[in-house]
Design a protein that fits this description.
Layout: H1 11-24, H2 37-44, H3 48-60, E1 64-67, E2 71-74, H4 78-105, H5 109-119
Antiparallel strand pairs: 1-2
């Protein structure tokens, strides 16, 4: 967790996303302890309540769970939950917008697939 906080979105959301990113990148493993809210507050020079709000988002979504007196831990299956959530967000935020714009420009499905393949480095789109 050595990312830099930005002004783009709320700090607690950034804290939540940073923990998710570390889980996706296998920096923090399932069933492993995550930094405490006090550790996060010290690391990022933020209010512990703000750090707690970010952590609580992950608890509510089943990504983290609390071991009383020990701390917060990554739930079994958390990585897959995060991946599925982010795929849904990707679809909603990028794919739908891309298809709407492609349609308004008269880009066919085949042209769009060819463009994606070209941008991806010529990957065979017949797979």
């Amino acid at each position: 967790m050595n990312e830099i906080l930005t002004q783009e979105k709320s700090i607690y959301l950034q804290i939540s996303e940073m923990i998710e990113n570390d889980i996706l990148r296998d920096i923090i493993q399932e069933e492993e302890r995550v930094p405490s809210t006090n550790e996060l507050a010290r690391l990022y020079t933020i209010n512990p309540a703000t750090a707690a709000k970010g952590v609580n988002i992950l608890v509510e979504s089943g990504i983290l769970y609390k071991k009383r007196g020990i701390g917060m831990f990554v739930s079994a299956g958390a990585k897959e939950k995060i991946r599925m959530k982010r795929k849904e967000e990707f679809y909603d935020n990028y794919i739908k917008t891309l298809l709407t714009e492609a349609e308004s420009l008269g880009i066919s499905k085949e042209e769009l697939i060819a463009m994606i393949c070209e941008a991806k480095g010529g990957i065979d789109h017949e797979r």
